[in-house]
Specification:
By secondary structure, the protein is of the alpha/beta class. It contains 14 helices and 5 strands. The protein starts with a strand and ends with a helix. The chain has helices spanning 19-22, 34-43, 61-71, 85-93, 106-119, 122-129, 138-150, 157-164, 168-179, 183-201, 206-212, 218-228, 233-239, 245-262; strands spanning 5-9, 27-31, 48-52, 76-80, 99-101. The protein is globular, with a radius of gyration of 19 Å. It has a 5-stranded parallel sheet with strand order 2-1-3-4-5, sandwiched between helices. Helix 10 (183-201) packs across helix 12.
Length: 263
């Protein structure tokens, strides 16, 4: 397997005594300016982005949020020796909560990075593909948080409703209003998205991907591809040579919309 690729924005990283330990298992590309960070995010297929602030403070929050916007669908995390309570409170209010401290054990930080990469990008992908969906109801954000928190275990509709403390009918209406699809199809979409990302960024075969995403077997993965994309994983691999996962899913959605319009 290839190492996950992480773009790190920092002015001080080369002087960090823990840098090599923390990122030993990742392919690191250092961006020393915001322009360099933006260029790397546009041109490279990164799995995650890290912003290093040795002492994150309230004045840095605007920079973090701007860099997060540049990162787009790639999950971004802030690394700091000591972030003040005002920074963390305001970051949470702005919807940003990915923060770790480089004083932690290096192995624990690596585990956090892997968790971020494995389930990362889901919320960002939803916000980009369905802009404004989180504003339709406070429950939409909770729904997505539950799905991501459980990843790669796939929650069933009844369990999602139970966790949100609403009935099944309300959940169906909620998803229809925010995403124009039932929750089971939303979950399928997200799992196919992560499968496409793994195809593009690793040397996993279909069996490996099915195992990573908690499918019962490879045939279940193939069924999801046919339902979501209307073609098999082998064809998806070919198309990924010229298109991104986001583009393939968007194209599939446009085909479905066109068919509905004809009928």
């Amino acid at each position: 397997m290839t190492k996950p690729k992480v773009i790190v924005y920092s002015h001080e990283l080369p002087d960090c005594p823990r840098y090599k330990k923390i990122f030993a298992n990742f392919e690191i590309l250092i961006a020393e300016s915001e322009e360099d960070f933006s260029e790397k995010m546009r041109s490279l297929p990164a799995d995650a982005a890290v912003v290093c602030f040795c002492s994150a403070s309230e004045k840095d929050l605007a920079d973090v949020l701007r860099l997060e916007a540049i990162a787009g669908v790639v999950p971004l995390i802030v690394c700091s020796k000591a972030a003040g309570t005002d920074f963390m409170r305001q970051a949470a209010q702005q919807g940003f909560s990915r923060l770790f401290f480089c004083t932690l054990d290096a192995d624990k930080m690596a585990d956090q990075m892997y968790d971020l990469i494995r389930s990362g990008g889901l919320k960002e992908h939803i916000q980009k593909l369905w802009p404004g969906s989180f504003e339709t109801s406070p429950l939409v954000g909770k729904l997505i948080d539950e799905i991501i928190h459980a990843f790669p275990f796939r929650l069933q509709v009844q369990e999602l409703a139970r966790r949100l403390k609403i009935d099944r009918g309300w959940l169906l209406k909620l998803c229809k209003g925010a995403f124009n699809r039932p929750p089971s199809e939303l979950v399928r979409h997200l799992w196919v998205y992560q499968a496409l990302r793994l195809m593009q960024r690793t040397d996993f075969d279909n069996t490996d991907i099915a195992e990573q995403l908690d499918y019962s077997d490879e045939s279940s993965l193939v069924r999801d591809f046919h339902k979501e994309l209307e073609y098999c994983p082998k064809e998806a691999r070919k198309r990924l040579l010229k298109s991104t996962p986001e583009e393939l899913l968007s194209q599939a959605g446009q085909r479905r919309t066109s068919r509905r319009a004809l009928h």
